[in-house]
User: Which sequence fits this backbone?
């Protein structure tokens, strides 16, 4: 470790085994993919707002197989849709939330010099990188990128163009990356906690990452298997997901058959529902850290939060089939899954209540990260509440596969998780760089994002209630969709303005590296957890001396102290 | 078709079971709105009252009140009511309690990229045999027209006629990929899955012309996979059947 100053640029910044460098690599790559995935959506929003009209200026840059004369082809629209979902979830949010924040913060918050397996950590990042390259490259293969939705339901995906094969190879790489990462997190948290740092003294963010890691470890292998089976169907002529007697465009499909399309859906959603919690739990962790720090008082119910998140993680494995209510499942199955779905809402309500009650009696600082963390609460509430009519089978009948679903999960993931992640960037930026991000630009970024995100997603509930199906290239085809077409125009303008607002963030992010206000201490937010006990930025190996922990993570405003915070590692 | 019936609200309901579903949607939404506004007001009040001010410090002690527990418990109880009181009974009725086939119109609907094929058994109530090897441009369902049961069968593309006030049972399947058979005004939605034959039933209570939408991405023409529902009076329906028989024998 002491040799870090002799490392070449490549060793230090590219093929590093330092968890902080890997964390930054994950975070930056994740942010780039988030913006790229969002660009795909901004393109789609042109087609949705002005169906069939040529896209001015930018439209001319595209090939004749995607947007001839600037008019989007339906196959390109389907590719954009499938890849938007895939990129945002697997290449954007998870790498940023788990790979980025998790990698950077978990060893610091538990007082460890690094992750338990630094080389495995680097391997995890490079698997992710390969997955990203494969996904990106798929846009340039004949037939374009995968176009069967991010859910890739067979038989459609089995008979789709070459892009789907790339998608599957990409997914196998991404899942491998997540598995390597999750094992590393679990071992690190169990084994490398500082002296005195018992489980119930862990910052809540670490708990969130701990549960997230178990979800990744247990939920991803089924999808990896499913991905390999689908590859076999596509490349080796097997028919795991193909029933007998398929007739495609009037021609019988020459396969043995006997497979089940629903098998894929079960395997996919067995991953993809816990995946929702992989997206949201790190965000809840970040929000908790920011809210407690800016409220200057202890978390209202630390143990309640921990038990809730454990219960949430467990329950997330027994709700997957609520994505499949319309596949013709029997009432016993559907009653079981709607009951578990109602049960899983309880810990979410508890977590939200705890966070709101933490504010009561505090001395609330409205910093930029606090803006984002506070906005998370009502956004997550909307996302959670709108899950109710979808989780109840009867009301799901008209709402299933409509824009209501899109609105629901985007409220959880976009105005919910993404706002939290942005808050996290503003909050830990001074620890990573030694400088603060500009506050005024941060507040413009916050209000712009907050308003535009609601401008995009709130109208989706109107569209969904009106019966508009998702994934429609030409929404105006149906009379009930034509009646709400005005909302599409409004949503598209909101999306494009949101894109502009992100430029402010990008500008602020890079400008502050050089011009941001320098932090005056290692602990600029006067926080209590261990990551603030390191030098700024933390060197390879993190702590100057091995930290010891004397108390819980959130000792703010304890009676009898002059300062309103009591760091975990200070004996007196 | 009168498109002014659609707007920023649920599509009009013309099915016998739809009213109960609509009621559940309304109840859930009022509950959600009430809860959200309650939370929102409490959150804003807390933020204003406990904002950082000179001379005030945060209290180390947590708020002590039974109210949050009461709210949580009432949320849980209300969810139990939604589940057991409304959702499960409606779902069981729609998915389990099929009307007797003898009193119903029974049809097959076979989805394919990107049309809806509707197969009527005719007055003998028996479907003619169908075989994938017989599928051709003029016989999308592969019906064996030499089968005696097929003599009075009718095959229709994208035009789904049925009489009002009579239960309809649809056996839904697909030839190629997964589609989803959605008729918004009837509160009907069911995936059509190749290799499976899934029954759906409904009863229309009002005549009119409406649309069938495909609700599951099924390929490049997904958006254009639109069919039409015509809910006829019994006389209109009989006339339509006769017209179809006549057209078939030409």
Assistant:
């Amino acid at each position: 470790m002491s040799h870090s100053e002799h490392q070449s640029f490549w060793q230090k910044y590219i093929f590093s085994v330092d968890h902080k460098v890997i964390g930054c690599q994950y975070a930056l790559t994740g942010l780039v993919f988030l913006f790229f995935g969002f660009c795909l959506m901004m393109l789609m929003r042109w087609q949705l707002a002005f169906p069939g009209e040529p896209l001015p200026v930018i439209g001319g840059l595209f090939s004749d197989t995607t947007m001839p004369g600037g008019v989007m082809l339906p196959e390109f629209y389907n590719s954009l849709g499938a890849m938007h979902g895939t990129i945002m979830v697997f290449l954007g949010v998870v790498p940023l939330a788990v790979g980025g924040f998790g990698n950077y913060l978990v060893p610091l918050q538990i007082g460890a010099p690094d992750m338990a397996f630094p080389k495995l950590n680097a391997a995890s990042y490079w698997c992710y990188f390969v997955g990203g390259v494969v996904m990106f490259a798929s846009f340039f293969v004949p037939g374009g990128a995968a176009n069967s939705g991010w859910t890739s339901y067979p038989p459609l995906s089995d008979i789709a163009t070459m892009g789907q094969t790339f998608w599957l190879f990409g997914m196998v790489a991404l899942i491998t990356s997540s598995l390597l990462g999750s094992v590393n997190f679990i071992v690190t948290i169990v084994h490398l906690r500082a002296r005195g740092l018992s489980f119930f003294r862990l910052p809540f963010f670490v708990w969130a990452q701990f549960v997230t890691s178990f979800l990744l470890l247990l939920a991803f292998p089924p999808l990896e298997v499913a991905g390999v089976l689908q590859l076999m169907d596509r490349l080796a002529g097997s028919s795991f997901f193909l029933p007998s007697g398929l007739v495609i465009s009037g021609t019988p499909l020459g396969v043995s058959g006997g497979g089940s399309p629903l098998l894929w859906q079960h395997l996919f959603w067995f991953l993809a529902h816990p995946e929702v919690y992989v997206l949201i739990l790190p965000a809840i962790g970040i929000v908790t850290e920011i809210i407690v720090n800016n409220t200057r008082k202890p978390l209202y119910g630390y143990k309640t939060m921990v038990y809730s998140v454990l219960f949430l993680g467990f329950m997330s494995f027994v709700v997957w089939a609520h994505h499949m209510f319309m596949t013709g499942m029997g009432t016993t199955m559907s009653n079981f899954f709607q009951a578990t779905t109602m049960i899983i809402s309880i810990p979410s309500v508890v977590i939200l209540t705890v966070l709101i009650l933490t504010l009561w009696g505090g001395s609330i600082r409205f910093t930029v990260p606090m803006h984002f963390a506070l906005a998370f609460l009502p956004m997550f509430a909307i996302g959670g509440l709108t899950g109710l009519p979808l989780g109840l089978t009867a009301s799901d009948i008209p709402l299933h596969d409509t824009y209501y679903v899109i609105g629901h999960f985007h409220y959880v993931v976009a105005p919910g998780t993404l706002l939290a992640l942005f808050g996290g960037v503003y909050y830990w930026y001074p620890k990573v760089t030694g400088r603060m991000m500009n506050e005024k630009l941060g507040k413009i970024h916050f209000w712009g994002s907050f308003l535009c995100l609601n401008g995009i997603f709130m109208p989706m509930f109107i569209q969904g209630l009106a019966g508009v199906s998702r994934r429609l290239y030409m929404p105006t085809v149906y009379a009930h969709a034509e009646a709400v077409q005005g909302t599409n125009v409004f949503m598209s303008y909101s999306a494009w303005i949101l894109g502009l607002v992100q430029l402010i963030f990008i500008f602020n992010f890079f400008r502050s590296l050089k011009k941001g206000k320098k932090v005056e201490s290692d602990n600029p937010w006067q926080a209590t957890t261990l990551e603030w006990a390191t030098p700024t930025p933390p060197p390879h190996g993190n702590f100057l001396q091995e930290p010891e922990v004397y108390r819980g993570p959130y000792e703010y405003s304890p009676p009898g102290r002059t300062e309103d915070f009591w760091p975990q590692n200070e004996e007196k | 078709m009168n498109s002014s019936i659609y707007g920023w609200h649920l599509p009009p309901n013309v099915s016998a079971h739809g009213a109960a579903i609509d009621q559940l949607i309304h109840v859930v939404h009022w509950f959600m709105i009430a809860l959200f506004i309650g939370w929102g007001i409490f959150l804003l009040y807390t933020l204003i009252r406990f904002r950082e001010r000179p001379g005030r410090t945060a209290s180390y002690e947590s708020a002590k009140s039974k109210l949050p527990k009461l709210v949580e418990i009432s949320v849980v109880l209300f969810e139990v009511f939604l589940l057991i009181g409304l959702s499960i009974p409606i779902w069981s009725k729609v998915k389990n309690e099929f009307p007797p086939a003898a009193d119903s119109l029974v049809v097959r609907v076979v989805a394919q990229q990107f049309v809806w094929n509707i197969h009527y058994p005719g007055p003998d109530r028996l479907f003619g045999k169908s075989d994938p090897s017989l599928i051709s441009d003029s016989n999308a369902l592969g019906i064996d027209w030499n089968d005696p049961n097929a003599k009075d069968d009718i095959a229709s593309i994208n035009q789904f006629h049925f009489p009002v006030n009579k239960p309809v049972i649809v056996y839904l399947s697909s030839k190629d990929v997964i589609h989803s058979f959605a008729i918004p005004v009837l509160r009907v939605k069911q995936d059509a899955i190749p290799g499976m034959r899934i029954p759906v039933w409904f009863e229309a209570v009002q005549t009119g012309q409406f649309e069938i939408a495909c609700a599951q991405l099924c390929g490049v023409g997904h958006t254009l996979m639109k069919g039409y529902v015509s809910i006829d009076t019994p006389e209109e329906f009989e006339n339509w059947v006769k017209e179809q028989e006549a057209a078939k024998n030409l």
Summary: Chain B touches chain A through 93 residues (CB under 8 Å). Residues 18-49 of chain B form the longest helix (32 residues). The longest strand of chain B covers residues 105-112.
